[in-house]
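Reply to dn_fold:

You asked what the input looked like. This is it:
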Amino acid sequence: MLPPFIVLDPILEDWLREDIGRGDRSTSGLFPNGQSPLGKAVWIAKADGVIAGLPIAARVFQLLEQSVNFVAIAQDGKPVKSGDLIAEINGSFATLLMGERVALNLVMRLSGIASATAEYVKAISGTKTRLVDTRKTIPGMRLLEKYATFVGGAINHRYGLDDAVMLKDNHIAAAGGITEAVQRVRGNIPFTTSIEVETESINQVKEAMQLNLDVIMLDNMPLSMMSEAIALIRQHSPQSKTEASGNITLDTIAQVAELGVDYISTSAMVTRSHWLDISMRISSYSALR
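and this is what came back:
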């Protein structure tokens, strides 16, 4: 879901302040004393991809000028082709110019993530496995980057450490073992909190199966070991979902999904994505008549 603006506004305002600083010298030099005429801008895709972030871009401009009219021609989560018209924006020239870079940067970044996510989703489309994102996000961008993976077709994993319990290798090492870690945690969390445990071997899988876990993660396992682990969990701990993780790429994701794992988690949609190129072109109303 798109986070509510009561959450997003302070983030967007910070990014606008960073870019505008003490004032937009270029725009204020063109239109001194706030006397900026009305104008129109259009956004055009310069590459094929999946769009994400248009409602957020609209909000960027509206924070500068409430009366700005941002009309989304494309739709979040839908593909566009190079040359497609993405949006039309009507407002003062000053607002269009001051908001351009922050709004474009956001949409290009998020659309790049959504585009990469769509490729991974397509690669496993013939299976029952669901693609899941991770917490490997840029600080300050997590809400938006996870929104982008969602509109690209993935489902969200934890947003933060307070979302659920995930006991990874270092937690297990610190506690002295999987069973000890789970027992300690269960005595200190709300009963509604789910518990996931990371495993790296068949012996760890067998130990985890005895603990009535919500999710058992199969981390960096060879395909043969992962196949054996999934079969064991299905037979002896069917209430536990399985999640494959570690070194998942477009070249390997289909092979992993074909093993029958419930979820595949990867950071690649975010960490290996490229920005989707989009340009903004501006003109006066009189020139458009």
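The chain has twelve helices and twelve strands.
Hope that clears it up.
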